[in-house]
């Protein structure tokens, strides 16, 4: 679903900056 | 500590779907919903707060909206909207409360041109109403109850 994709993008972008 | 995230949905099936994606990306998570025993909930919260490898908490809006201290998280993602904004605020306050030392970011994920646009507008109305007459009982009641007019607006538009 588009919501899960969007949430994962947020999550993964924070993970990278971490 | 590591950047941690709480993800809220009001549907446990949505949390199930999210679990599938987290497993695919090998992201460690814990889950908290109303079907779990008190002991299991305690354990999930404790492990999320203390284990640096566990970076995501999946929570149902109803089970996780009050009392819990989860300041280990500084990021909150809401997968769906609740018509009463105070319910969402209480959920966000799990991370944004005394003891939090980092800025807290909140992301609401909505789908354009769906009923969610109208839920956002309804939330705005409720916020205005509470702000304009804070402390008055009648307004307090109408802000926490979904009226027939609200329902008409949600499903039929203005």
Q: Give the largest interface pair and sizes.
A: A-B, 14 and 19 residues
Q: Assign an overall shape of chain A.
A: rod-shaped
Number of helical regions of chain A: 1
Low-confidence stretches of chain A: none
Shape of chain B: globular
Beta strand % of chain B:
15-25%
How would you sum up this structure in a few lines?
The complex is a heterodimer of chains A (18) and B (158). With 18 residues, chain A is mainly α.
What does this structure look like?
By secondary structure, chain A is an all-alpha fold. Helix content of chain A is about 90%, strand content about 0%. Chain A is built from one helix and no strands. The radius of gyration of chain A is 8 Å and the shape is rod-shaped. The mean pLDDT of chain A is about 85. By secondary structure, chain B is of the alpha/beta class. Helix content of chain B is about 45%, strand content about 20%. Chain B is built from six helices and five strands. Chain B has helices at about 10-25, 40-50, 85-90, 115-130, 135-145, 150-155, and strands spanning about 5-10, 30, 55-60, 75-80, 105-110. Chain B has a five-stranded parallel β-sheet with strand order 2-3-1-4-5, with helices on both faces. In chain B, strand 4 (about 75-80), helix 3 and strand 5 (about 105-110) form a beta-alpha-beta unit. In chain B, helix 4 packs antiparallel against helix 5 (about 135-145) and helix 4 runs antiparallel to helix 6 (about 150-155). The longest helix of chain B is centred in the last third of the chain and has 18 residues, at about 115-130. The radius of gyration of chain B is 17 Å and the shape is globular. The relative contact order of chain B is 0.15. The interface of A and B includes residues 2, 4, 7, 10 and 17 of A.
């Amino acid at each position: 679903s588009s919501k899960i994709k969007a949430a994962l993008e947020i999550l993964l972008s924070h993970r990278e900056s971490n | 500590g590591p950047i941690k995230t709480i993800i809220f949905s009001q549907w446990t099936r949505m949390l199930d779907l999210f679990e599938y994606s987290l497993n695919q990306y090998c992201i460690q998570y814990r889950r908290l919903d109303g079907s779990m025993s008190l002991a299991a909930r305690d354990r999930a919260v404790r492990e999320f707060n203390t284990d640096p490898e566990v970076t995501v908490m999946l929570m149902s809006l109803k089970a996780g909206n009050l009392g819990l201290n989860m300041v280990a998280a500084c990021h909150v993602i809401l997968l769906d909207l609740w018509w009463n904004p105070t319910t969402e605020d209480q959920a966000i306050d799990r991370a944004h409360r005394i003891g939090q030392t980092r800025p807290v970011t909140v992301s609401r994920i909505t789908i354009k041109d769906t009923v969610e646009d109208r839920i956002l507008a309804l939330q705005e109305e409720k916020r205005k109403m509470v702000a304009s007459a804070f402390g008055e009982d009648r307004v307090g009641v109408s802000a926490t109850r979904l009226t027939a007019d609200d329902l008409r607006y949600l499903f039929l538009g203005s």
